[in-house]
Amino acid sequence: MPFDSLGGLAAVAGLLGLCVGSFLNVVIHRLPKMMEEEWQAQCAELRGETPSTVASLTLARPRSRCPSCGHQITARENIPLLSYLFLRGKCSNCATPISPRYPIVEAVTALLSAYAAWHFGPTLQAVGALLLIWALIALTVIDFDTQLLPDSITLPLLWAGLAFNLVNTYADLSSAVIGAMIGYLSLWSVFWLFKLATGKEGMGYGDFKLLAALGAWLGWQMLPAIILLSSVVGAGIGIAMIAATRQGRNTPIPFGPYLATAGLIALFWGPQLTRSYLGLMG
To answer: Is the pTM of this model over 0.85?
Structure first.
């Protein structure tokens, strides 16, 4: 495909990524709160209490507001990236600083979306890559914030990976199914071995499901590279965080972001990394 055509496709995907990134900020902020509401409702039901009649939080309502003063965000104040710059990073009503994470998520989503379109071209692989990228970005930030990897994202992501590979989009279907099984069972085994040896839980069940989803998307052949990359990145960042913040070794560090990062690397450059690794080993 001509470079100009790929450039135009990447530009369109980047603009789409900006809009999706804005929505991902809503998902990142609200989904954990929605999960907490659901847990509280379930606990109340188990206690025999009457469920609350207060309107629950959803991804669509209520409209976004400033958490400090309650100012309702207008359409003009909700333009990806540009609104943050126009507002100089502050609420227009109370001047409370807006977290720079919002434009960062939008920018990263746009850049990765544009690169995926340029890398894969106008193919089904590009469509799947966009969906995978958006889900991994949301999971990464949610896990950093709450150390949770919501089933409402990981499980549909797993099934979507199998669906795309019905037509061998990234791997043949048998490799995808085996990848999902091995992805889950490998970390599940590590979890129980660590727990039996130390009496502590080293990771959460969401990590098993995320690796299973990556196996479903990319096939079992990519799992060694994903596990190795995530372990190296996680260990390096974990050591740096402990040294910088002087936190103890027992401070929990989310593993999901490193799995997500390794999954993205494998999505774009997995075959090359595998060939390089096998070349070094052989």
So the answer is: yes
